[in-house]
């Protein structure tokens, strides 16, 4: 009986692992020199950035990051939410940045120890360490899930945030790493221009290039480590290439930054900015804060 139990356990673990954002295609094992040479197009095709709705927001001197356990609010996820220092003393509307975690931080969010997992990465981690200092103040939210990110649930969660917080609805942004990168791509693949967000930053994730037309009005900057043995780098390469090849007049150029000699964890260096200047020169340079890049864009 104990051997049968062990066998069943192994099958279960295999199934769970398959839900992890593991997508390495052994047939596409590559070295940096074999990456498709692609002259980066850093020419600014975007409209001139308009900061008039956020440049007068009160300076964020030190806000608060609060845990909301699943079941204590109307949200379908447990989550941490950061509000800037002046949020509770005014009526201004703020940009909203939502960060989706990877498979290693899964949890149901019904207890604090579980929910705290989301504080170990992304903008929420920078806030936790006192290193959050974007050019403009923003609400930052990190939900937790025990399963893969479901686009419909993410959509409903963002609607909840819009109903609950004073959100500038033209300035909602989504990012995620690994499983969260998959979730970030899949949210737009599901909703396209009906998505709540203006721009996304998927990190070491993968999308479906056959549905690239969903991104005609969604601004994209993807990041990936070339030596990623968990999610193949072509998961990002093929997605961005497909968007660029759309037979429509898109008003922006999707960006892709690849890190040579970097594996799956390229999110730490992306979120904290330490990866600036380390990208493959055949792709888009990591030459500005990703948060400042997000603030360039508003949903029309």
Entry summary:
The chain has helices spanning 2-19, 112-115, 122-128, 151-164, 179-191, 234-244, 267-271, 290-295; strands spanning 64-68, 78-83, 94-100, 139-144, 167-177, 199-203, 219-225, 255-259.
> Going across the major beta sheet, what is the strand order?
1-2-4-3-5-6-7-8
Report the strand count.
Answer: 8
Average pLDDT works out at 87
N-to-C span: 62 Å
Query: What series of H and E elements makes up the topology?
Result: HEEEHHEHEHEEHEHH
Globular, elongated, flat, extended or rod-shaped: what is the shape? globular
What is the helical fraction, as a range of percent? Answer: 25-40%
Structure characterization notes:
This protein is of the alpha/beta class and 300 residues long. Helices cover 26% and strands 17% of the residues. It contains eight helices and eight strands; from the N terminus they run αβββααβαβαββαβαα. An eight-stranded mixed sheet has the order 1-2-4-3-5-6-7-8, with helices on both faces. Strand 7, helix 6 and strand 8 form a beta-alpha-beta unit. Helix 4 packs across helix 5. The N terminus is likely disordered.
